[in-house]
Design goal:
The protein is an alpha/beta fold. The chain is about 40% helix and about 20% strand. Strands 2, 3, 4, 5, 6, 7, 8, 9, 10, 11 and 12 form an 11-stranded mixed sheet that branches. Strands 13, 16, 17, 20, 21, 22, 24, 25, 26 and 27 form a 10-stranded mixed sheet that branches. It has a 4-stranded mixed sheet with strand order 15-14-18-19. α2 packs across α20 and α13 packs across α14. The longest helix has about 30 residues.
Length: about 650
């Protein structure tokens, strides 16, 4: 046993060099405003708003006052506004008053679509997000409803120019409900609706008519395929799309209020004049819409601007009502017990959230593997994934944890779910058009990993929005196990639930790159247990800007000393750390209790006497070692009990 103060002093005496990490806890491309993240964590309605209307849609100060007024309308409907924008190379979901003012005044703002996001971020630029970029950010944050004025579409003569807005392809690939006043009337509305059909986008008019609106006019001469009459019907439509996992959005077209539609004919005439002038001046691409809107505003002596503001206000009100209805319906479903795979109610007090993989293990028959040529060996299929391994082990140890994960709807999914019949897999969603995660491990004759390749994209679909459907089970669990493969936003959400309901969380860091995820924010302070190796433990400390050794030691004494010293700052909030050291065994760090480490969770935070206990590894021969991949997951499972 080594007391932590002694270990820290030992490191200083031996002169192990250290460095200051550049990877701070806020080093993330996406910033979610605290009001937005709190609302999402509490399953309250949130409405995403775009910002090109601020940077390119209206002149100052109308742009700023309209943006603030729209946010006020959302709040009045008891939802939380989340205006999306790019500020100095960071995508912000939810803006402060100062940030809104910055975008409204900035004269060098980019118009940021999906195409432009990488450039704006790499250059540290600011800009207003279009419909497509806002959808990307909203989906990443877990916001299902987005309100805008009107979406882009197929431009006139688009069949020749192929000038088609990225808004349409984004609607075909991102599961977000977009509430708008239809399509801008400067576009080819008929071809836009045809293109949306090709993209598999569900289009419905909101209200008493199926007429598809044309921004300033409630009628475009076209009809929507479908119609929803009220917020509840719209919410059910959105919920159905999300539940099906189609990975495409829905367009809800809201006609401009009748009292402002009277000016529609005058505005339409001005639009035709502006379109003709834009064509004569050779204005194309992204510059067309701002030019035409400004020209139309001049020709109508401000009436188009008034109508524009009116329809945005109306969309914000309707969209907020839909978001509130969706939130109510979602929360109502969560109150019901979730049946397991046999149709029985789950009585589990443990929840595991993480990846599920089909593994292909290639084991060499020689001591050394030669890359660039064929090596003799054997190849077999098995089933893995950190989360699945933990849930599997707990199930075999007499528990029935609820396992929450995502797979494709393919033969690999059929195989792994059939193998996992002994587990409660009711929380596993099967998604169309995605592959079940697969992992190929090349291991040496002794069982050590030589090379690994993984197709893990489906793990990003274990989203905060999906996991929140199980909040009833999460809030009543005695332990929640998190696999580092899941998105950061999901980890943050579960940690917020844990903080609210005093739940113990075990974080399995998976690898050195993913070990940092809870430590990018204060979410890590809600963790109770974690089982990192020494490299992962360094990553956790580096993410908190805590110095770590530049070179990891090789001797056992120094390895233990470093592990103890790096565990100490984390134990200010975590109850216990299990540091795995490979051939050197395991170091258990936590509260001293009668010559051992107390693994029982703390009921309240208090000053503790900390200690560390080293368990040397058992000697195992090469013949006895089949595969060490997943051994750490099994070890963690036993400690969870």
């Amino acid at each position: 046993m080594r007391i932590m103060k002694k270990a820290s002093a030992l490191i200083s005496r031996r002169g192990i060099s250290t460095f200051q990490s550049k990877f701070g806890k806020n080093d993330s491309l996406f910033r979610v405003h605290p009001s937005v993240s709190q609302a999402l964590a509490e399953n309250r309605p949130v409405v995403a708003l775009e910002s090109t209307i601020i940077t390119h849609g209206m002149p100052y100060p109308h742009n700023l006052s309209t943006a603030k007024e729209v946010e006020a309308i959302v709040r009045a409907e008891e939802a939380t506004p989340a205006t999306v924008g790019v500020i100095e190379g960071k995508v912000h979901v939810g803006l402060s008053s100062e940030e809104l003012d910055h975008l409204a005044r900035c004269k060098s703002s980019l118009k940021v679509s999906r195409r432009d996001l990488p450039y704006a971020i790499s250059k540290g630029l600011s800009g207003g997000t279009t419909v497509s970029a806002t959808m990307i950010a909203a989906h990443r944050a877990g916001i299902p409803v987005f309100v805008t004025g009107g979406i882009g579409g197929v431009h006139r003569d688009g069949e020749n120019s192929l000038d088609i807005s990225a808004d349409l392809t984004e609607l075909g690939s991102t599961p977000i409900a977009v509430v708008s006043a239809g399509v801008k009337s400067i576009l080819d509305i008929g071809r836009t609706l045809e293109f949306l059909e090709t993209q598999g986008v569900c289009v419905a008019t909101y209200g008493a008519s199926k007429n598809f609106p044309a921004f300033f006019s409630p009628q475009s001469g076209f009809t929507s395929p479908y119609q929803v009459y009220n917020p509840e019907e719209a919410a059910k439509l959105i919920a159905s799309i999300l539940s099906l996992g189609l990975q495409s959005g829905v367009l809800l077209a809201v006609p401009i209020p009748e009292e402002h539609a009277a000016a529609g004919q005058l505005i339409e005439q001005a639009i035709q004049t502006a379109v003709t002038e834009a064509s004569a001046k050779g204005i194309t691409g992204r510059d067309v819409t701002p030019f035409i809107l400004q020209k139309v505003n001049d020709l109508t002596e401000g009436k188009s601007l008034q109508a524009n503001i009116a329809l945005i206000r109306n969309n914000a009100k309707v969209g907020s009502q839909i978001a509130c209805a969706l939130s109510k319906q979602t929360n109502k479903r969560k109150l019901r017990s979730t049946p397991d795979h046999h149709g029985k109610k789950s009585d589990s007090d443990i929840v595991v959230i993480g990846g599920i993989n089909v593994d292909f293990i290639a084991k060499g028959k020689t001591k050394t593997l030669l890359f660039g040529q064929t090596n003799p060996g054997s190849v077999c299929q098995s089933f893995g994934g950190v989360g699945r391994n933990i849930a599997d082990s707990l199930s075999r140890l007499g528990h029935t944890p609820l396992f929450i994960s995502a797979t494709g709807n393919d033969s690999h999914s059929d195989a792994v779910l059939n193998y996992c019949k002994h587990m409660n897999t009711s929380g596993v969603v099967r998604l169309q058009d995605l592959n079940t995660a697969t992992y190929c491990a090349v291991i040496t004759e002794s069982g050590e990993l030589s090379l690994g390749l993984g197709d893990m994209d489906v793990h990003q679909q274990i989203t905060e929005h999906y996991v929140s459907q199980f909040e009833n089970q999460l809030s009543s669990a005695t332990l929640v196990c998190l696999d580092g493969n899941i998105p950061v936003s999901t980890i943050d959400y579960v940690c917020s639930v844990a903080r609210k309901h005093n739940i113990n969380i075990w974080y399995e860091p998976t690898d050195s790159e993913k070990a940092c995820k809870p430590f990018l924010s204060d979410a890590w302070k809600s963790l109770s247990y974690s089982s990192p190796n020494l490299v992962e433990l360094c990553t956790m400390n580096q993410t908190l800007d805590i110095q770590t050794p530049e070179v990891l030691p090789s001797s056992l004494d120094e390895v233990l000393s470093v592990a103890v010293a790096l565990s100490r700052p984390l134990l200010e909030h975590l109850h216990c750390l299990v540091v795995t050291l490979g051939a050197n065994g395991v170091l258990l760090c936590g509260e001293h209790d009668a010559g051992s480490v107390n693994l029982q969770p703390r009921k309240q935070k208090r000053k503790r006497k900390l200690c560390a206990l080293h368990y040397p590894a058992l000697t195992v021969t090469t013949e006895e070692t089949m595969n060490v991949s997943g051994a750490g997951d099994r070890h963690s499972s036993s400690l969870c009990l």
